[in-house]
């Protein structure tokens, strides 16, 4: 596949994409991003992803174009990179722009930098094998609800997890579980789902919200409320959600075996419900 990216009004080869060294995204991580999955050339849950993009932009005071611009950008990116029948992840980043004076307080007339690219994504229809994760203290900033490009805390946590051979940490603050650095979490106990409530300490995941809706359709109770670290040994099931992993069962947290260490029935039902929603999105009947 070709690799054509969008940068500030131009469509160019990825290797030719460049931004100023004075861009505030480079100097201060002053910007936001959004990720949209594409299944067989069709963006999945696009309106929800764009709504979160707009919210992040509002929260940090950046104004960029209108709704029509973003829809056209997404569909042009798919077309120009020949993803009409392929699966991918669209990455869109907006920074506050560039100014020669390096100052914490930005000037009033900056023109935002807008960048977008698409990369391959494996589309699966199976039940993922349960993974092992680790429990770490949440060291990130206090506005995790903004999808900020300032991800150093997330990176450090992912490195800690990789150092002990696991794919993802699950994070806690003051004894309460928040989320993962690249995922939301759901616990299962007595047939009901538990997940952290939406607030400034978690990213409002699109897949998180979608799974809550799928659970409601399946008659599975959902409790959006604080969940204690001390309750982890009593869980029947645990899974992670994100746009790239969809629904990922967890079999073990450090030395704690979740249930019997396998994918439990509630998680399995939601994996299949997620697959069914993809089939509907693609116009497949089975």
Automatic annotation (TrEMBL):
Reply yes or no: does the keyword Zinc apply.
no
EC number(s) in its UniProt entry?
4.1.3.38
Query: What cofactor requirement does the entry state?
Result: pyridoxal 5'-phosphate
**Which enzyme class, named as a word?**
lyase
CDD domains in UniProt? D-AAT_like
Concerning Pfam families, the annotation shows: Aminotran_4
Q: Which GO terms describe its molecular function?
A: 4-amino-4-deoxychorismate lyase activity
Reaction(s) catalysed (UniProt annotation): 4-amino-4-deoxychorismate = 4-aminobenzoate + pyruvate + H(+)
The record's GO CC annotations read:
cytosol
Its family remark reads: Belongs to the class-IV pyridoxal-phosphate-dependent aminotransferase family.
The free-text function statement in the UniProt record for this protein reads:
Involved in the biosynthesis of p-aminobenzoate (PABA), a precursor of tetrahydrofolate. Converts 4-amino-4-deoxychorismate into 4-aminobenzoate (PABA) and pyruvate.
The name under which this protein is listed is Aminodeoxychorismate lyase
Specify the taxonomic lineage: Bacteria, Pseudomonadati, Pseudomonadota, Gammaproteobacteria, Alteromonadales
